[in-house]
């Protein structure tokens, strides 16, 4: 998109915020916004944003920061030229070749966490890799966060489903890291996804998530859920203008709560199948929106989030090409965080063990593609070319031998057989090969060590909060 087109979307977004406004359902959030200069409509939840107030507030958001993990070796830098991949998050169902499709449960949740920890193509947890529906919602966040912090030592996510859940998860992360409250506030150590209820609404749990985590200098990813033709205009320009307005509203609230609180601009705009109303992913429209979202995020200086998504029901050609299209839009759009990087299927309704392993290969390919090429006397290999000369080969040269183990991407899924040996081995397909790798990786898994004192304190907190009943629910 040209600079003047980008500016048109920016101006349109500010006009949406000023003239139409956002319904902000949480009274505390409305009060904070109006105190900062927004205009509340009497007897309604509507808030209209002054453009100058928005631009002044969002200018304080950091363009780059470190997200801290339990293991410092897994700290990640968010923003700049960095790209971080998360595992799949939040599907209600799970599947593998052996057991088929089933409702999310604790065992599968824990095994997906183990895979996410074991696969180095995945740097952070995007949330629950599947919802363990066998745990009551009042205490589910306690069980899941404990598992994430003991089965893994990578950075974790907390769902913004009420302020009390946010606080519980933050305290568990503090305990697992072995730090005090002051260090926690200096070092962002957990993050949350804030989805606007498109069109043009910020609901109470999402507002509470922004307020709780911004106040403690923790990381929020503000992600409108704008599906063109359903919750946003059917045109990509209109859908992205609405996405931008909703993202700016959430980021403004975070910066009003605490200037400099870490945030990211989330893009999730796609289109829907107009025959069924179902979300479509991995489409050209998704790619366009991902790239435009990245341009807007860079215009404001925000880190940018996109996703690896598909709408396929089976691990087939559709799943492959839609994931590649999604990743291409995300990476070429300059995404710093790619959510649902490994394991997403069925438009987000299912996590797949085999797809997680296949996607890990794909993420490694993207990572290798993104590595800057080094051009110097050594890589130009003039000595090796002279040594081999016309008509020779480079397999045995010292230049090749010194590099072949690390020079090229080595996929897990393909074992590079020719057709005859592949056929002789039973003609394994990609999902069958991945299923065997899932078993192998889970068998190899070793839980990362956790200091005994921290583990004891974490267990004490968990036991106490479970005994107290966790959080109130409507179930």
Supply Rg.
Answer: 23 Å
Instruction: Domain count, please report it.
Output: 2
Fraction of residues in H or I helices: 40-55%
Could you give a short account of the major beta sheet? 7 strands, parallel
Do you know the CATH architecture of the largest domain? Alpha-Beta Barrel
Mean pLDDT: 95
- The CATH superfamily name of the largest domain is Trimethylamine methyltransferase-like
Our measurement of the CA-to-CA distance between the termini, rounded to an integer number of angstroms, reads 47 Å
Strand content: 5-15%
Provide the low-confidence segments as ranges: none
Number of H/I helices: 19
CATH structural class of the largest domain: Alpha Beta
Shape label? globular
* Named CATH topology of the largest domain: TIM Barrel
Strand arrangement, major sheet: 6-18-17-14-12-10-9
Keywords:
475 residues; alpha/beta; TIM Barrel; 2 domains; seven-stranded parallel β-sheet; 19 helices
How are the secondary structure elements laid out?
Elements: H1 3-20, E1 22-24, H2 27-35, E2 39-40, E3 46-48, H3 51-58, E4 64-67, E5 76-79, E6 84-87, E7 93-96, E8 100-103, H4 106-118, H5 137-151, E9 156-157, H6 163-177, H7 181-186, E10 190-194, E11 201-202, H8 204-215, E12 219-222, E13 227-228, H9 236-257, E14 263-266, E15 270-272, E16 279-280, H10 284-300, E17 304-307, H11 317-332, E18 337-342, E19 344-345, E20 350-352, H12 353-370, H13 377-380, H14 382-388, H15 398-401, H16 404-407, H17 419-424, H18 430-444, H19 452-467
